[in-house]
Amino acid sequence: MRDALFASIEAKTDELVELTRNLIQIPTINPPGEDYEDCARLIGERMRARGFDIAYVRGDGTPGDSDRYPRVNVVARREGGAPGSCVHFNGHTDVVEVGKGWTVDPFAGVVKDGKVFGRGACDMKGGIAAAIIAVEALIETRPDFPGALEISGTVDEETGGYGGVAYLARQGYFSKPRVDHVIIPEPLNVDRVCLGHRGVWWAQIETHGRIAHGSMPFLGDSAIRHMAAVLERFEHDLYPHLASKRTDMPVAPEGARQSTMNINSIHGGLGEDFDGWPSAVVADSCRVVVDRRYLIEETYDEVKGEVVDLLERLKRDRKNFRYDLKELWSVPPTMTDKEAAVVRAVASEIETVLGKPADYVISPGTYDQKHVARFGHLHDCIAYGPGILDLAHQPDEYVGIDDLVASAKVMAASAWALLTGEVT
């Protein structure tokens, strides 16, 4: 069975490359959410032609959803010839902005030097294409397979996934008894099983002041100076404390095996949406957005409490210090058990295909597994796919053709093992 399956995938190499190119050529940039429906229909109509039932599901009312930018997802399902488990392959169709520094057209799907280039090649249209080819090879090799196979193309992962997997998970698309195992072909490197991700807590801190003429700042109270005091406490107190926290989670890269916090943005005083000279005023407001990534050994209350305690100390120590704290979103860490069936199946096939044991990692940032776990309550879920993690969101992003083929073999053989219950 395995030899026939692998031979089928190798014979489909050109088709795999072309499908990857076709997906890249649809510029599904998020934000704002361009061309989602076109990409969903490319996947849906292909799978319909191969005997799958197709559902197009719009994430009505989710962040960013509008008639101009509808959040259109696609779910394809094919029942096998006997009862059994369902294996679901999920990939996000959205990509980030292009940015500067490209030497090739980011939406042409250029093929050279054994690689397919383009925005989303690595993250994660190459993974979607590999999963589709894996499933197609499986049903062609064993059309009487037991159980069911599903493929989904979902939106908005790059901005939280609320119009995509989160919306579908709340509708039962990622829960038992419909689905038993989920593989998300994110670019975590072709020899790795990604078990989950660190937690995240985003918040906006706003400091308040009193407006006055800029030539007489002593008559006002600068919110920017108050924010500077917050940043100074971050540097001297919070950042060293976070650096001392280490985890047993196998987070990659190594630098992410500690707690981290990034300042995503800072805005104070006058707005920047004008071309003329600014006016002379003391800023009465300053805002920062912080992105705190935390470990499975930490709790939500601990993470939030560290920032609140710091701000409250400043309130006691600094004259006229006033602040507001607004939580933007949070997700707990997640880590699938290494003994879970989907982990064992994929790890076994990585060793078969690549000739070396699988590496187990945790992602430094979240991905859609968070929604499968907390809304679908399904924990037999991992990320596995082609692509080099460090290339995601970079100029001249690419995916290697050999990695596309190898990952398709791993996914096809893993799906067969899970469908038949032959997981070692």
UniProtKB/TrEMBL annotation:
InterPro entries from the UniProt entry: ArgE/DapE, Bact_exopeptidase_dim_dom, Peptidase_M20, Peptidase_M20_dimer, Peptidase_M20A
Residue ranges of the TM segments: none
SUPFAM superfamilies (alphabetical): Bacterial exopeptidase dimerisation domain, Zn-dependent exopeptidases
Cofactors, names only: Co(2+); Zn(2+)
Keywords of the record: Cobalt, Hydrolase, Metal-binding, Zinc
Domain Peptidase M20 dimerisation, chain residue ranges per copy: 196-316
GO molecular-function terms, A-Z: hydrolase activity; metal ion binding
Family: Belongs to the peptidase M20A family.
Protein name per the record: Acetylornithine deacetylase/succinyl-diaminopimelate desuccinylase family protein
Source organism of the structure: Microbaculum marinisediminis
